[in-house]
Structures are given as structure tokens and as C-alpha cells.
Amino acid sequence: MKVFTTAISTLVIAAASMTSINATAGMSQHMETALIDTCKAAMSNQKLRLQKTLKEYRLEAKTVALGVVCNGSDIIAFAEQHGAEKTARHLNKKVGESTITDIANVTKYEVTFPVSPK
Asked: Which of 75, 77, 87, 110 qualifies as a FRET site for 93, CA 20 to 30 Å off?
């Protein structure tokens, strides 16, 4: 299972490094669906739903927090814009785990999707 997760992570990073500013253009349908579902879970303000979505797609919360862009905003800011304080706080905690990361150098995965009013 860990080998599969590592292989997927490597493929995601390789695919993202080959794309330009808008990563959606070179992304597989499965990856785009996974990221959109993750963005929707983040804006739901349901920590359990976010964790379940991350587990379903075998994504690490820290990787998502640092590398996913939802409708032009990083996923934490996106969650906050939609009043999802619980999920934003959860993702923020994952970023703050005793490491220093050059955020400008982190690969970003961007998805854009219509957001319906609540």
C-alpha cells in the first residue's frame, strides 16, 4: 500500500512539474476529480469529511495544504473564504509540523470549478 502511495505521489509531482501556471490542462481526469472533491470537502467545514476525502484519494493533508489551489486561492484561504474555519484550522495545523518549507518553491496543483451558493 505504501509503495502504491509513493508511486502515485511521484507521478503527481512529475505531472505537475511538466505543466505551466494552470496545472488543470495537463492533469488526468482522476486527479482533477480528486482535487475538486478535496476542495469541496475543505469548504464544507466538516473536518471528518475532509479527512475521509483525503484518505479515499490517498492524499497527505500536509501535501494538500501546501500544494492545492482551489479557484485561484490556496486551499486554506479558500476554506476560510467559505467560512470553513474547522477545516482551515485542521490544514493549518498540518503545515505547522516543525519543518521549514519554502512555499514559493512548492509545486501547486490548481483546479477551478463552479461553487454553488449554500
From this structure: 110
Q: How far apart are CA 102 and CA 48, in angstroms?
A: 29
| Crossing angle between the packed helical segments 29-43 and 85-95, to the nearest 10 degrees | 120
User: Within its chain, how far is the Cα of 32 from the centroid?
Assistant: 10
Q: What are 34's three cell numbers?
A: 480528486
CA distance 37 to 66: 17
Is the distance from CB of 47 to CB of 39 less than 8 angstroms? no
Cα–Cα distance measured from residue 45 to residue 4, given in angstroms and rounded to the nearest whole number: 29
Q: By the 8 A CB rule, do 71 and 28 touch?
A: no
Residue 53's φ and ψ, nearest 5 degrees, are: -65, -45
Does position 22 have pLDDT exceeding 50, yes or no?
no
State the average pLDDT over residues 51-79: 93
Residue partners of 46: CB distance under 8 A and separation at least 6 = 86, 87
Question: Is residue 69 pLDDT above 50, yes or no?
Answer: yes
